[in-house]
C-alpha cells in the first residue's frame, strides 16, 4: 500500500511541478513571437470510461505452474469506482502553449474472465471461468508543448508534441470450474487464487488540438487527437466535445477515447482501452 501511495504521490508531484515550470518559463519561450499577456487555463473534469483490457501475468501465482491471461470487460462505472482525480492545466502566450493532463482512476470488482492459461509455451484456452474479479488502479499523465498553426474565430489548431506516462496495477482473484493441467502433465494451475502485478510505460506523442467555431454564437467544438509510441507499440487518443463559452470560462460535454497496445508479449498490458463521455469546465485567468 505504501508503495502505491508513493508512486501516485510522485505522479501528482510531477504534474504539479510541470505546471509550475510551464508558468515560469512559458513567457520567455513565447516573448519573441507575441507580446500578448500570459494566459492560464485550468479544466477539472469528470470522465465516465468503460475499460477493456487484455492483461498478461508473467510472474506465476504461488503454488501455480501457469500464468493467466485475462479479459477485463466494460462494467458499471459508478458501481465500481473507488476514487478518481482528473485535471488539465494549460499555459499559453502568443503562438506557444504548454499543457499537462493528469488522470487517476481506482476501480474495483470489474467484470472479467480468465481467457487462457500460459504454461511457458504451452497454452490452454479451454478454460471455464466461474467468477473472476480484477481491481485496477491507473495513473495516466500527458505533458506536451504546442505551437499554433491556424488562429481564427471559425477554426483554431495547434500542433502538439510531448510524452505520455501510464502506470497500471491490476489485482486479480479468479475462480475456475476445475484445476488446469499442462499438456505435458507436469504442472497445474490452481482452480482458485489471486495475483497482483503492475507496469509502467513512457511514450512520445505527436498530435493536434483546437476548436471549430459555430458561426457567431458562443458554441464551439473543441477537439484533440494524438498518436505515439515508445514503451508501447502504439498509443493514441481522441477527444471531441460541444462547448459553450461564458467569456472567461467554458462548459464542455463530449467523448474521450484512449488506447495502449503492447510492444512485448510479456507486458502486463497487452491491450488497454478507455472510452466514454466526459464533462468539464475550463477556466481562463
The tally of helices reads 2
For the secondary structure, the number of strands is 15
Biggest sheet details: 13 strands, antiparallel
Q: How far is it from the N-terminal to the C-terminal residue, by CA?
A: 38 Å
Structural class: mainly beta
The percentage helix is 10-25%
Q: List unreliable stretches of 5+ residues.
A: 21-34
Overall pLDDT confidence = 82
Order of helices and strands: HEEEHEEEEEEEEEEEE
What share of the residues does DSSP label as strand, in percent? over 45%
> What overall geometry do the principal axes of the alpha carbons give?
elongated
Cα gyration radius (Å): 22 Å
Explain how this protein is built.
By secondary structure, the chain is mainly β. It is 12% helix and 63% strand. The chain contains two helices and 15 strands. It has helices at 2-30, 77-80, and strands at 39-47, 50-56, 67-72, 81-93, 96-118, 123-124, 132-151, 155-175, 180-181, 188-189, 192-213, 219-230, 234-245, 249-261, 269-284. Strands 1, 2, 3, 4, 5, 6, 7, 8, 11, 12, 13, 14 and 15 form a 13-stranded antiparallel beta sheet that branches. The chain has a two-stranded antiparallel ribbon with strand order 9-10. A hairpin with a 7-residue loop joins strand 14 (249-261) and strand 15. The radius of gyration is 22 Å and the shape is elongated. The two termini are 38 Å apart. The relative contact order is 0.18.
Keywords summarizing the entry:
285 residues, two-stranded antiparallel ribbon, 2 helices
Amino acid at each position: 500500500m505504501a508503495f502505491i501511495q508513493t508512486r501516485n504521490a510522485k505522479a501528482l508531484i510531477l504534474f504539479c511541478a510541470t505546471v509550475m515550470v510551464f508558468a515560469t518559463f512559458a513567457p520567455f519561450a513565447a516573448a519573441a513571437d507575441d507580446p500578448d499577456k500570459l494566459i492560464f487555463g485550468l479544466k477539472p473534469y469528470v470522465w465516465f470510461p468503460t475499460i477493456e483490457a487484455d492483461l498478461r501475468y508473467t510472474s506465476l501465482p504461488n503454488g501455480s505452474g501457469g500464468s493467466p491471461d485475462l479479459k477485463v470487460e466494460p462494467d458499471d462505472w459508478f458501481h465500481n469506482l473507488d476514487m478518481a482525480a482528473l485535471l488539465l492545466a494549460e499555459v499559453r502566450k502568443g503562438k506557444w502553449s504548454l499543457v499537462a493532463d493528469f488522470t487517476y482512476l481506482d476501480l474495483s470488482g470489474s467484470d472479467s474472465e480468465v481467457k487462457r492459461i500460459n504454461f511457458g509455451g504451452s497454452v490452454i484456452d479451454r478454460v471455464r471461468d466461474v467468477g473472476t474479479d480484477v481491481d485496477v488502479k491507473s495513473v495516466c499523465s500527458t505533458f506536451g508543448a504546442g505551437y499554433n498553426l491556424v488562429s481564427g474565430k471559425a477554426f483554431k489548431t495547434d500542433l502538439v508534441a510531448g510524452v505520455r506516462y501510464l502506470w497500471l496495477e491490476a489485482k486479480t482473484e479468479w475462480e475456475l470450474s476445475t484445476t488446469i493441467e499442462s499438456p505435458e502433465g507436469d504442472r497445474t494451475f490452481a482452480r482458485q487464487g489471486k495475483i497482483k502485478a503492475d507496469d509502467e510505460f513512457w511514450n512520445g506523442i505527436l498530435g493536434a488540438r483546437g476548436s471549430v467555431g459555430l458561426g457567431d454564437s458562443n458554441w464551439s467544438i473543441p477537439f484533440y487527437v494524438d498518436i505515439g509510441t515508445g514503451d508501447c507499440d502504439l498509443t493514441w487518443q481522441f477527444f471531441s466535445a460541444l462547448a459553450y463559452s461564458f467569456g472567461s470560462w467554458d462548459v464542455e460535454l463530449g467523448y474521450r477515447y484512449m488506447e495502449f497496445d503492447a510492444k512485448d508479449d510479456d507486458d502486463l498490458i497487452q491491450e488497454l482501452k478507455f472510452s466514454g463521455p466526459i464533462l468539464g469546465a475550463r477556466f481562463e485567468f
